[in-house]
Specification:
10 helices, 6-stranded antiparallel beta sheet, binds beta-L-fucopyranose, TIM Barrel, 22 strands, 8-stranded parallel barrel, about 20% helix, alpha/beta, 2 domains, Jelly Rolls
């Protein structure tokens, strides 16, 4: 894209002093198109549901009988609308967990819904959930456990063939898939067709990950692939829903494989890093991943989910929030109410962007061109951005109000299509004519949210942003009032 700019505007520029201002060259690595789409989701749901729901377990041994899968009132719309009302943009279903039971009637095993009393063996949970997702505007993703404690061939080559056949079924029979989730928990004790023994595998070689991932590329080219090692989205290194700070989107992913990764590096990413592999924070709304009635009183409050949002989405990662259906096959009323409140709290926090009413200037604007000017910063469009000239490494953006404002949340975004450029940022506020530093950090990437410990009153905010190797750029700046829910005490 070439943009014509000139001091006398378009007309004069065309006649007198035409000048082409190129956008900044991207700083590699940059996200793929499928990753850019994924970044937009920010919060989506995990649905753990299988025989464990009925045996009150977290990990089934693999010797369960399909007849134990017996939801009394399964309703995919109930599950999907609970997530939708929480503002979740997608849903990843445990189509097969470690116990090997398949929620769809796979052609390659008897260990599936086909032999359960539910819908007289005619049911298909995967189909019902994916169709409900389409009805309610959520994207649909699949979790297929590589570890299978039921399958007799687990640990031998024949199982890998089976695993890929199942993956093929899921990727060809259920429409577009936005994410394929490969769990790092692999190998160990299991039923294994009656052998009841311990089986270990070589995590690097057994699953032939390159070939398995290629299958996903071939069958669902728009899907992102998740594992400890990416290749598209990485585990954040904990199951608490919290990213590191900084949390770079970049990683040297060849150092890792599913089930073998340095948790500290997963939390923070690598800077510099050769690949774009942003983090995903998986966490459950309850202590367990599966539903247990004993945990009905231990559902996280909505304010806690907001905390997690700030520590995941607010650090450039995504939040994958697990909401397990109960034995009816519906979402428990408590979880449903919490999800709705979570959405309301977020809507409240981000209702009014004070940056939109500020006068916004910058120490440098690329080529003095409006295309890269500060008006791009509060236009709500992630694709447009303010950028500095190529020789610049540190720049400032200033927001000034005619009368002092009180705020509590700062929201920064980089135009990640140009890579992650910022190495350091500082936020200062002007109070009674004096500048004071209130916050500083390193990574921004797709988003960085900073929340003030108490309301900040000021007439101007200055964001100083520096890059070690390229000119800085920002796509969005948000300044929001101090969140009301914090007034009632810390969550
Ligand atoms: C883990 C699994 O072992 C848990 O059961 C759960 O599925 C979680 C999301 O991933 O590795």
């Amino acid at each position: 894209m070439k943009v014509m700019c000139g001091v006398l505007g378009w007309f004069a520029a065309a006649i007198f002093i035409s000048r082409a201002v190129e956008p900044p060259a991207p700083l590699p690595p940059v996200p793929s198109a499928r990753q850019l789409e994924w970044h937009r989701l920010e919060v989506y749901g995990f649905v753990h549901f299988t025989i464990n729901t009925f045996t009150d377990k977290e990990w089934g041994y693999g010797d369960e009988h399909p007849s134990q899968f017996a939801p009394t009132d399964f309703d995919a719309d109930d599950i999907v609308t609970a997530l939708r009302d929480g503002g979740l943009k997608g849903l990843i279903l445990t189509c097969k967990h470690h116990d090997g039971f398949c929620l769809w009637p796979s052609r390659y095993t008897e260990h599936s819904v086909r032999h359960s009393p539910w819908r007289n063996g005619q049911g298909d949970v995967v189909r019902e959930i994916c169709e409900a997702c389409r009805r309610h505007g959520l994207k649909f993703g699949v979790y297929l456990s590589p570890w299978d404690r039921n399958h007799p061939e687990y640990g031998r080559p024949a199982y890998v063939t089976y695993f890929r056949q199942q993956l093929r079924e899921l990727l060809t029979q259920y429409g577009p898939i936005f994410e394929v989730w490969f769990d790092g928990a692999n190998g160990g004790e299991g039923y294994y067709g009656g052998a009841r023994e311990r089986r270990t595998i070589d995590r690097r070689t057994y699953y032939g990950w390159d070939e398995t991932w290629q299958l996903v590329r071939d069958l669902q080219p728009d899907a992102v692939i998740f594992s400890d090692a990416g290749p598209d989205v990485r585990w954040v290194g904990n199951e608490r829903g919290i990213a590191g700070d900084p949390c770079w989107a970049t990683l040297n992913r060849e150092d890792f494989c599913p089930g073998e990764a340095d948790r500290r590096r997963l939390q923070h990413g690598d800077r510099p890093g050769r690949h774009w592999v942003p983090a995903e924070c998986d966490v459950s709304i309850r202590p367990g991943w599966f539903y247990h009635s004993a945990e009905d009183t231990r559902v996280r409050p909505a304010t806690n989910l907001v905390e997690l949002y700030f520590q995941s989405v607010g650090r450039g990662a995504s939040l994958l929030l697990n909401v397990p259906p109960d034995r009816r096959g519906r979402i428990h009323p408590t979880d449903r109410a919490v999800l709705r409140e979570f959405r309301q709290l977020l809507d409240e926090i981000f209702a009014t962007n004070l940056a939109a009413t500020a006068q916004c200037t910058a120490s440098n604007v690329r080529g003095n061109c409006a295309e890269f000017g500060t008006a791009r910063l509060a236009d709500g469009d992630r694709a447009t951005y303010w950028a500095a000239d190529d020789i610049v490494r540190a720049a400032e953006v200033e927001l000034r109000w005619s009368t002092p404002v009180e705020w509590g949340v700062l929201d920064l975004r980089e135009p990640i299509q140009l890579g992650q450029r910022c190495d350091r940022w500082v936020v200062e506020v002007e109070q009674s004519g004096e500048w004071r530093t209130v916050a500083q950090g390193q990574s921004i990437g797709s988003r960085h949210l900073w929340r003030a410990p108490k309301p900040v009153r000021c007439s101007a905010v200055r964001i100083r942003i520096a890059s070690d190797v390229v000119c800085p750029a920002l796509s969005e700046v948000g300044v929001y009032p101090w969140p009301k829910y914090l007034r009632t005490g810390p969550p």
